[in-house]
């Protein structure tokens, strides 16, 4: 998407969907496992007209909350029918934009600045574990959660994609008009982590190779106090200082 945009071969609003990724990645070049024919992997090119550059990082927060509300509605519907797997916990968003069920991430969002004929835009990549099974991830050596697990039934990927993109389009229109505040309110309704302990990871250059050692990262343990009206995190460190965090990884 980035190369096509730079060459002027696609326009803002373009959606690219993959059935499989051979080099899926998240932040800091970490791998995102992408089995074929099971999940959703897509990139959307989002124009920044009407959105200040300084507010561009908030787009991923808007997307995460918009998507999480759809996932939560699927979970609630499954639970109402007696199908849901309540042992996994509830769908929520971990600041800034990871979508979890309980404490297990099943949807990741990665946004990167790109240019379309010199005009800035956001290339936003999304990976969602939809219908894959534990066998698809056995080589990872850890549990992986999927929407199928959460709802105890297969999910129609095409219908899900239509809902996600349709709701995102409306949400971005509202974001241009009202800013991030409505989604801060939505986050607080859904949040499970205010008041909980966590660790802020600053200057995080941990890759798959050194993520356990934490080499190159500064970690601050403490308590999550709040998400503020501008989308930043209010965090009380164990040394008593209270910090406003605009960009970092949050470990729960």
Describe the structure in brief:
The chain has 5 helices and 11 strands, in the order αββαββββαααβββββ.
Taking all residues together, what is the mean pLDDT?
89
Q: Helix proportion of residues, in percent?
A: 25-40%
* The top level CATH class name of the largest domain: Alpha Beta
Q: What do we call the CATH homologous superfamily of the largest domain?
A: Bira Bifunctional Protein, Domain 2
**Strand segment tally:** 11
Structural class: alpha+beta
**Unreliable segments of 5+ consecutive residues:** none
How many individual domains? 2
CATH topology of the largest domain: BirA Bifunctional Protein, domain 2
**Alpha carbon gap, first and last residue:** 32 Å
Order of strands in the sheet with the most strands? 1-2-6-5-4-3
The second-level CATH architecture of the largest domain is 2-Layer Sandwich
Strand content: 25-35%
Major β-sheet annotation: 6 strands, antiparallel
């Amino acid at each position: 998407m980035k190369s096509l945009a730079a060459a002027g071969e696609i326009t803002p609003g373009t959606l690219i969907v993959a059935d499989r990724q051979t080099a899926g990645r998240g932040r800091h070049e970490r791998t995102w496992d992408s089995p074929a024919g099971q999940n959703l992997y897509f990139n959307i090119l989002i124009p920044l007209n009407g959105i200040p550059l300084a507010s561009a990082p908030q787009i991923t927060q808007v997307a995460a909350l918009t998507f999480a509300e759809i996932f939560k509605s699927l979970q609630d519907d499954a639970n109402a029918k007696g199908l849901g797997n309540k042992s996994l916990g509830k769908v929520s968003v971990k600041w800034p934009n990871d979508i979890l069920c309980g404490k297990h991430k099943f949807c990741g969002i990665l946004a990167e600045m790109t240019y379309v004929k010199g005009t800035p835009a956001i290339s936003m990549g999304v990976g969602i574990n939809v219908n894959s099974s534990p066998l698809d991830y056995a080589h990872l050596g850890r549990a992986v959660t999927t929407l199928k697990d959460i709802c105890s039934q297969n999910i129609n990927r095409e219908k899900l994609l239509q809902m996600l993109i349709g709701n995102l389009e409306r949400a971005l229109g509202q974001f241009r008009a009202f800013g991030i505040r409505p989604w801060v309110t939505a986050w607080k309704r859904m949040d499970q982590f205010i008041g909980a302990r966590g660790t802020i990871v600053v200057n995080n250059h941990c890759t798959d190779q050194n993520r356990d050692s934490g080499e190159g990262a500064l970690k601050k343990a403490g308590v999550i106090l709040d998400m503020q009206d501008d989308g930043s995190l209010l965090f009380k460190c164990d040394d008593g200082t209270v910090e406003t965090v605009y960009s970092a990884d949050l470990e729960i």
